[in-house]
Amino acid sequence: MAQALLFGSVASAALLAGAALGAFWAPPEHLTAAALAFAGGALTSALSFELFAEADKLGGVVYAAIGMLVGAAVFIVVDARLLSGMRGSAVGLGLLAAATIDGISENLALGVSLIEGASVALLAAISIANLPEALGSAVRMRENGRSIRFVLGTWSIVAVLLAASVAAGRLLLGSASGGTLALLLGFAGGAVLAALATTVFPEAFRHGGPYIAFATVAGFLFAYVLAEM
Fold first, then answer.
1. Which of 70, 124, 156, 187 has an alpha carbon 20 to 30 Å from 193's alpha carbon atom?
2. What is the mean pLDDT of residues 77-88?
3. How many whole angstroms separate alpha carbon 226 and alpha carbon 145?
4. Predicted TM-score of the model (pTM)
5. Every domain of the chain and the residues it spans
6. pLDDT score at 88
7. How many Cα atoms within 13 Å fall on the side-chain side of residue 1?
8. What is the predicted pLDDT for the residue at 89?
């Protein structure tokens, strides 16, 4: 459990760091785009070689695939029904909601991964993704008139929730069957992949242009090499 709390704290610390930066500083759009693209590449690598591969190993490809399809469907429905109404003038809150929904899936999966052995690559990918997501949301919230106290307080609550998700994944699912774990890991992978396709990559391309793809490749290679070390 101590390891779960440590992993949860590290991942959540990146959220708080991003929110703090965004509350006081608005970085150039191309820099944020590069960070998002790098994070997207790292998450793509992690969900391929950590989440889905581990799900296949634990319960077989059928359970893993079912979980992935359900996870993607849930994220898409929530994104379409809930988050679309929060964009526009409230884009900062929409990004926060998206990061929270996506982050709970990621952190539960991180907790589940600790059952079979710590996944440093998955932790790194989640942490890398958390920082630009929180930074972008905080910048938009400040632009829409939210106070620094509101921004930091809101993201602090999210950080605690996501850190607790890692512990919950490790504690509540430690005795689950291989098929159940495969479904859950696949679900998390599907939710992450849907978030990348609908939010992270489009946002990075919109602000960074086609050459931002190099940052995505760099993120993918970084997470892959980390997983192989």
1. 156
2. 64
3. 40
4. 0.81
5. 2-228
6. 47
7. 4
8. 42
